[in-house]
Amino acid sequence: MKILVVGTGAREHAIVHALAAETPDGAAHELHAAPGNPGIGREAALHPVDANDGAAVAALAQELRVDLVVVGPEAPLVAGVADAVAAAGFPVFGPTAAAAQLEGSKAYAKDVMAAAGVPTALAHVCTTIDEVAAALDAFGAPYVVKDDGLAAGKGVVVTSDRDAALEHAREALAARGDAGRVVVEAYLDGPEVSVFVISDGTHVVPLQPAQDFKRIFDLDEGPNTGGMGAYSPLDWAPAGLVDEVVERIAQPTVDEMARRGTPFAGVLYVGLALTSRGTRVVEFNARFGDPETQVVLARLQTPLSRVLLASATGGLGELEPLRWSPSPVVNVVVASHGYPGTVRNGDVITGIADAEALDGVHVLHAGTALTADGALVAAGGRVLSVIAEGETLDAARDRAYEGVALIGLDGSQHRTDIALKAARGEIAVPTTL
Ligand code: GLY
Could you read off the pLDDT of 387-414 as tens digits, one per residue? Predict the structure, then answer.
């Protein structure tokens, strides 16, 4: 197949990497990326096309005569890139702009959840700072304030500091003028889990769960990031979790979206908290999560192209049961100096080949660039994902951190406790009340 992947991150690199490993009819796929990054460029042809420009992506699909377009990030989806590609007559993995509102608007997602009977946190949609203050006081600490719209991973604040919660709300409201809205929610206790569910608008097929580490520092301290690491599988999660997600969350949501005339095809990212009151949805996203995709796809043994094409063409009902590697996989993210604040770009990156020479280790690129003289440098907040597979979670962690130790990047940061609690058996799911 000829496949075009849209986006620039480690998630898109993970998708390209998985597709590059496939030889469905004995022949490799022909892979293209727009615009991609230097790591993706080792496995696919890069095209300097703006990922958010639907007309340009559709024109590229036309020029290449691709069999499938895969739209990775949320911004192009919300901007209607999948719509433009579909209108040009190409199968596309990723929801329409209307369906991507499940991520584009937290208030819209809450409305769909309520209509579909999906268990989630109580919430107030607020348009003034007085409403926010009242909602914060109604729920009490810890406070959860979410920008209604896309905010490049900076839209959610969870804090026990009421002033900080109000300040985030004030900034989010001001940033969108008259359209400013924030969602104030009740805090959900318990460990968080990400489950990706593939849909073709009617059927749903769940992938294996993963866990993300959102805070910048060890022990979940410091500000939120896009995600500093992940691992899968989750041996500690309840046995019936994925079935519960399908039955109580994903299928009712997909049914509700179809009922509204905005069928959701693509991947529904179900962010969950396993609380003392049961499983609750923390958030929906309309695309694969990053950094969880890097570990989930590393374990998927069914050809990814088959899954993505079935979603794009309405064939999920006929897809064979997915096959998975039982081996644990760990992803440790290497981030730039200053992340998640103002990052320093241009520092030279070394050691990737040495890390990849380790057994079971591969490195995916996110914020990287090549200079005119061919040096690989940091060019973003999250720079690399170091992925390692092992026979046990401990072994996978050890290898991932061995790989990270070989990466050279001045001022870089990484967490040292990715998957540590799980490896030590220290994660407890609260007893349901
Ligand atoms: N892992 C968080 C996200 O992709 O939004």
Answer: 999 999 999 999 999 999 999 999 999 9
